[in-house]
Amino acid sequence: MAASSRALTTVVNTNALDVGLAPSIAMGMCYVAMADSLGLAMGNAVANQQRNQVLAGAAVAQVLSLIIAAGAAGAAGSPS
Hints:
The protein is mainly alpha-helical. Helices cover 95% and strands 0% of the residues. It is rod-shaped and about 110 Å long. The protein has one helix and no strands.
């Protein structure tokens, strides 16, 4: 009878430990999920900034080519 009493005490103590640790484990999981979400958000922000930088460079190149083309057409059409 003593063995089953000790086994029952061990099970009860284990259950109490699980119940006692549940809130801290849940908060830990919440913090991990939040850190992962923030990491993804920052990664997306960096990717968007890089794409915008490439787009800005392409826009500047296009504007400069239009300016050069307009200058060349003006120089060719003007009498010297």
